[in-house]
Design brief:
This protein has about 800 residues and is of the alpha/beta class. It contains 20 helices and 17 strands. The strands form three sheets. Strands 6, 7, 8, 9, 10, 11 and 12 form a seven-stranded mixed sheet that branches. Strands 2-1-5-4-3 form a five-stranded antiparallel sheet, sandwiched between helices. Strands 14-13-15-16-17 form a five-stranded parallel sheet, sandwiched between helices.
């Protein structure tokens, strides 16, 4: 019964043992499969990590190479703009094609990441936009303006466009670095999890084996009677255990390999850290490039300001602060519509706010070029500037978020233009005045001449002599006006000699003292080492007297007049600020007063003929215009400096010469004989003047041949058999002038003397407006006695020369 009872227990125990073994085998198999799967996953992870690391390195390398090539292009363009040397474009030319290839490769490599591929395309779009909007037009303008002073481009606009490229590449690299870091973190997490899983599976397998061993021992004790039946099974189980142990050894080896792979990943991480360090160095170099660009903007001679979308100034360079007379703090956040700017148009009218270049550029999104305006400085002076405005856009936006204004200070240039226009106006008025004076002189010559002949014919007690005297006096007063007009128009004849202005002032000082009266002090400050000038002495005396009289009239309550001389050097800077002035060595004559002074409007017209600030009947308005004409005809310059209530200074600059001043011949010549029998050729195109001269000379006893033109005179000389002793000729005539006639007559009648007449000389005499030494000259209008005297002097001088 016992044997029969134990048999079911043994069977139950065997079944239970079989069931346990089955469960243990199933768990072990699952554990082994899990270990195998984990090891396979580790190998796959290693291979995938290696491929991905290489791919990430290629992407980062391409992005950094693209950034370096873009920087080379921008550096080449800026170098060319700064130096104008085409060799500076070598880096840009070399990088142009390479940059496109690098960006295409970058787009292809990022196909597995649509977001990164979009960023790569954004980099390429930014480069294309920089090329089309800045590089290509800038290089074209630089080529057109090479060799000139024109600014070829708007560098700040180019910087904004290149910053867009730099920002796009930086965003791409930052995202790539973040992706790389995230993937490394996930890989490390996966590796740790895989290793933990393998170790857990090994522990599970060990636990199963330990439990199986304990259960086997327990079953061996309980089922000793079944030992023989289970021996084969035990041996088989032991073989399986040995196989599992061998498998465990393999798993340990694989674990060692996984640890080796982990060490390789650590080495890869160190390489990545070095790459990041190099990226930091590149960013530092980029910051250094930005600093160089900032210094370039700060050193620009033109003003540059950045304004936000509301027209408020965000930043400015030193040139802008200098031109506008404000500090950077004062300009910060100030709106272009601020009324303190006091912006005006070229004609002086207020500049509407909605037409300001910055406002128009922000409103339309279009650049504004070369807009001229005046801006009021804090000291109330007006700065004239030429403004350019450039709108700035963010990628993908059509509305400007800011505008860059650049402007040049053209205040000095406008002043020179105003001076030049004034000089042109004075020349035009001078030509008109000279023409009037010329025609008027011919008429006055006839009036004074014929009135003189009437006086000669009338008896001493004839009551008509008084009327003729009044006609002659009126004609003489008119002649004074015409001489002043000719002096202003620089069309009078001068007889220059080397002068010492100090001596001229000393000779006139007593007379000037009588002119100005006792209530005005006359002081002189004369340079003892004063250089010489070459000018007409009588005309320079006229200049000095006119300036002193003008100063006297500006001080009705008395005051002080100072006459000063000095040697001065007018340099290129002075010439740039004063139109039609040539740099060089000059002698300065200055006349200053402490009178009422003049405003700017009066100063602008002070040298115009017939312009006067005096009451009607108190002056002709020709005094200062005469000064202007004499100084200009002497190759000099005259400038006025005046302030209301603080007096006026006139400065005359005459070219300094190295010759020694001549002593004026003060001896009076003996009164010439008025009659003669010599043969005279009279050449005059004006019928009234010619008729007067013919009548006077024939009355005096001379044989007179008359001609209306130079060509007519040559014909008469060829037909005349007698010797011509004197040629009396007008200087300016149709067909042939007096000088050309004299040169041709010298070939036919070399001993004939010359007497020139002139009241007007036009362009030819303005170029050669000085008489040669020893040549006689008779100024129109002249009297009958004046003509007789000059003719006799010329003939007597010839007789003395041949004696």
């Amino acid at each position: 019964m016992a044997a029969e009872a134990s048999s079911p227990n043994a069977v139950d125990g065997a079944d239970e043992m079989l069931s346990f073994l089955r469960r243990s085998l199933w768990i072990g198999t699952v554990a082994l499969a899990g270990i195998a799967a984990s090891v396979g996953a580790l190998f796959l992870a290693k291979e995938w990590s290696t491929r991905w690391a290489l791919h990430a390195r290629d992407v980062s390398r391409l992005a950094r190479d693209a950034r370096a090539l873009a920087t080379d292009r921008e550096t080449g363009v800026r170098g060319y703009l700064l130096s104008g040397d085409t060799t500076s474009l070598a880096p840009e030319v070399a990088a142009r094609a390479a940059l496109g290839r690098e960006l295409d490769s970058l787009i292809a490599l990022t196909a597995d990441n649509p977001a990164q591929q979009a960023r790569a395309r954004a980099v390429r779009d930014a480069v294309v936009h920089w090329e089309e909007s800045y590089e290509t037009p800038t290089l074209a303008r630089a080529e057109r303006t090479r060799g000139s002073t024109e600014s070829p481009s708007d560098d700040l606009a180019g910087k904004a466009l290149f910053d867009r490229i730099r920002g796009a590449i930086g965003a791409f690299l930052s995202t790539e670095d973040a992706l790389y870091a995230e993937r490394v973190r996930l890989e490390e997490t996966f590796l740790r999890a895989a290793l933990a899983l393998v170790l857990g599976e090994i522990l599970v397998l060990g636990g199963v084996l330990a439990r199986l061993q304990r259960r086997a021992v327990s079953q061996a004790v309980d089922l000793g009677q079944h030992q023989r039946h289970l021996t084969d099974q035990a041996v088989e189980l032991e073989e399986q255990a040995e196989a599992l142990g061998a498998r465990g050894v393999e798993l340990e080896q694989q674990t060692g390999e996984a640890l080796a792979m982990a060490r390789q990943l650590e080495a890869s991480n160190r390489d990545l850290a070095e790459a990041i360090a190099k990226s930091d160095l590149a960013r530092e170099e980029a910051r250094a490039a930005d600093e160089r660009y900032r210094l370039l903007v700060e050193k620009l001679p033109v003003g540059v300001v950045l304004q936000d979308a509301d027209g408020r100034i965000e930043t400015s360079n030193p040139a802008a602060e200098r031109i506008l007379g404000l500090t950077s703090d004062q300009m910060l956040r100030r709106s272009v519509l601020d009324p303190r700017w006091g912006v005006v148009r070229e004609d002086g009218s207020p500049f509407p706010g909605d037409e300001l270049p910055a406002i128009v550029s922000l409103r339309t999104g279009k650049p504004q070029s070369n807009v001229l305006m005046g801006v009021r400085r804090p000291d109330d002076s007006l700065a004239w500037i030429e403004v350019n405005a450039q709108p700035l856009f963010r990628p993908g936006e059509g509305t400007p978020y800011a505008a860059v204004l650049s402007f040049a200070d053209i205040t000095a240039r406008r002043q020179l233009e105003q001076q030049f226009r004034q000089a042109q106006k004075m020349d035009a008025v001078g030509q008109l005045a000279g023409g009037v004076a010329h025609d008027f002189n011919n008429m006055l010559t006839a009036i004074t001449g014929y009135s003189g002949l009437l006086l000669d014919d009338l008896e001493t007690g004839d009551r008509r002599r008084e009327d003729v005297d009044e006609i002659k006096k009126a004609a003489n007063r008119a002649a004074v006006l015409t001489r002043q007009l000719l002096a202003f128009s620089r069309q009078q004849m001068l007889q220059p000699r080397v002068l010492d202005l100090n001596a001229t002032i000393a000779e006139l000082q007593k007379m000037l003292g009588r002119l100005i009266g006792d209530d005005i002090d006359l002081a002189t400050q004369l340079d003892p080492a004063l250089g010489s000038v070459k000018a007409d002495g009588g005309q320079i005396e006229q200049v000095l007297m006119n300036l002193v009289v003008n100063a006297r009239d500006a001080m009705p309550q008395g005051g002080k007049i100072t006459v000063e001389t000095a040697n001065v050097e007018l340099d290129d800077e002075y010439a740039r600020k004063h139109a039609v002035t040539r740099p060089g060595a000059y002698v300065m004559l200055a006349v200053s007063d402490t009178g009422v002074g003049m405003d700017s409007e009066t100063q602008a017209r002070i040298f115009e003929p017939f312009f006067t600030t005096k009451e009607p009947g108190k002056g002709t308005g020709l005094g200062l215009s005469t000064v202007y004409g004499i100084v200009k005809q002497s190759d000099g310059h005259v400038w006025v400096y005046s302030e209301l209530g603080r007096g006026t200074t006139f400065k005359v600059y005459l070219p300094r010469v190295e010759e020694v001043a001549e002593n004026a011949d003060l001896s009076e010549s003996a009164a010439p004989s008025r009659g003669g029998t010599e043969t005279i050729l009279l050449v005059e195109d004006d019928e009234a003047v010619r008729g007067l001269a013919l009548r006077v000379l024939r009355r005096t006893g001379y044989t007179v041949l008359e001609a209306t033109t130079g060509v007519d005179a040559l014909r008469i000389c060829a037909d005349a058999g007698a010797t011509i002793d004197l040629v009396v000729t007008d200087m300016m005539m149709p067909e042939m002038g007096g000088r050309e006639l004299a040169q041709k007559l010298a070939e036919v009648h070399p001993r004939a003397q010359l007497l020139f007449m002139s009241g007007y000389t036009e362009e030819a005499v303005r170029k050669n407006g000085f008489l040669e030494p020893g040549v006689a000259f008779l100024e129109k209008p002249f009297t009958a006695d004046g003509l007789r005297d000059m003719v006799r002097q010329a003939l007597d001088a010839a007789n003395l020369a041949t004696a």
